[in-house]
Specification:
Structural class: mainly alpha
Helix content: over 70%
Number of domains: 1
Shape: elongated
């Protein structure tokens, strides 16, 4: 499709859909972050009792999630 030949309605529909998509993706991202935080608090300590004390602060910091847990969650969500 040539953007110059689109009607105003087509352009509006495309922008509106992007706006809806942005809102939905923000909501999903919020749910993903909440789930990630729950996993970091409950499951990860049980899976990593042998974590090195030097890394303990990094693993317990909710602002810096474990990359492995994040990748696994992304793989689960992208498979659906």
């Amino acid at each position: 499709m040539d953007p110059l030949s689109d009607s105003a309605g087509d352009v509006y529909a495309r922008v509106f859909n992007l706006d809806v998509l942005a809102r939905v993706s923000t909501k999903i991202r919020g749910q993903f972050i909440k789930l990630r935080d729950e996993l970091n608090e409950t499951i990860k300590p049980a899976l990593m009792p042998h974590a090195h004390p030097r890394n303990a602060a990094r693993h317990s910091d909710p602002q810096r999630p474990n990359a492995l847990v994040t990748r696994r969650l992304l793989r689960i969500y992208s498979a659906k």
